[in-house]
Amino acid sequence: MKNYFSLAFASLLFAGSAGAQGLYYVGSEAQESLPLKWVVGVTASYDDNISPSYGNEQGSVAINPYVGLSFVNITPQTTWDVYVRLGVLYYLDAPAGTNDLNNQSRAGVNLTHRFSERLRFSSRNFVAYELNPDYSYGVASSAKVGEYFYWQSDNSVGFRWTERLGTYTGLRLAGTSYSDLVNNGTFTWELYNQFRYQLGPQTVLTGDYRYGQTTGDGAASDSSDQYFLVGVEHRFSPNTIAIARGGIQLHEIDGGDSYTSPYFELALNSQVTQQLSVRAYTRYGIESNDTYQIHPAGPSIFDNTQTLRFGVSSEYALSPMMSIFGGVDYIPTSYAGGRRISDNAGVSDLSTDLINAYIGLSVKFNDYLTGTVSYNFTESSSDIQFQDYTRNRISIGVSAEF
């Protein structure tokens, strides 16, 4: 029992803060080495509204061929976790003004190096160049025109000062740009320090201070943020862990107003049974993305964009060869502190409610070949021009691993 508690203590004390691959991340790292694995596949889909941000509802069949690789290498000192997926999305009948050929690629490199039992370095890096937004990244609040490029790098040093007290100190960098849009790109750097106190074999108390600055593209505002947070990380069982943090966010516009907002974040990962797994996240605060919107009074920038993000996904194995999966994202956003770009005149507040839900079936035909079929529904209710729409996508695909 003592060995189990020691292992649980070390893993929790060094679990780390929110990571770079989306809001589902709970600070875990790969536990065993995996050899180089290749995947080749193709997906055919029908999208009934491929460019909702244009306000022109038109459907098209699309083909998405892709190739990918992944591997995990673990030694007593170093862990490498690498994955790459390169693909394109080709619409057979794209409407005028939209590209028929688009990138659909992403990659990640995660590194943990343990200098000693007390000192370690962690680097989590992710990049995506895609057309359709992945809402779990915590960046997009609606569909956009054209491709977007998103990257994030989270680098930190963890040190265990005593048997119960540890810290993580790091620098997080992130950037977003859009191929067909101005005033939407951002670059953010954030310094953070987290104190971690081991309350018990399965529980860690945390205290965070974060300071970051965001540079907006074009007319978008530059801003700075401070976060004062307390939290808890609890491992309910070897297969279930939850992380919760909450506190105050101070959001200041360069040369403009300052705003104070509650801030909280929650992530939960659980292997409920051998067949059922569940993941969930929640985050609320002022965001610096998507501050440019088309207001009825004219294109405007909003300095106080308060956003709630909620998501849950699940997978259930019906048999060793067949499983069903599904999930939902819910993102209500309020836009305040707005001003018209043309003359800097104030404009009224706006709001958007977006829900994105999906369900699918995966069938493993043999050790190498897998087929999937899925349905995705998106509805955006908004008083922003071109952001009130519904969207349905049906996909069927096959992939081979070797």
Give a quick rundown of the structure.
With 402 residues, the protein is mostly beta strands.
Tell me about this structure.
Helices cover 3% and strands 66% of the residues. It is an all-beta fold. The protein has a single domain (2-401), classed as Porin, CATH 2.40.160. The protein has one helix at residues 2-13; strands at 34-47, 60-74, 78-91, 101-103, 105-114, 119-130, 148-160, 165-178, 186-200, 203-216, 223-237, 240-253, 258-271, 276-287, 292-295, 298-319, 322-340, 350-364, 369-382, 389-401. It contains one helix and 20 strands. A hairpin with a 4-residue loop joins strand 7 and strand 8 (165-178).
Number of helices: 1
Here the CATH topology equals Porin
Percentage of residues in strands: over 45%
Named at the architecture level, the CATH assignment is Beta Barrel
What key attributes describe this structure?
402 residues, mainly beta, Porin, 66% strand, globular, disordered N terminus
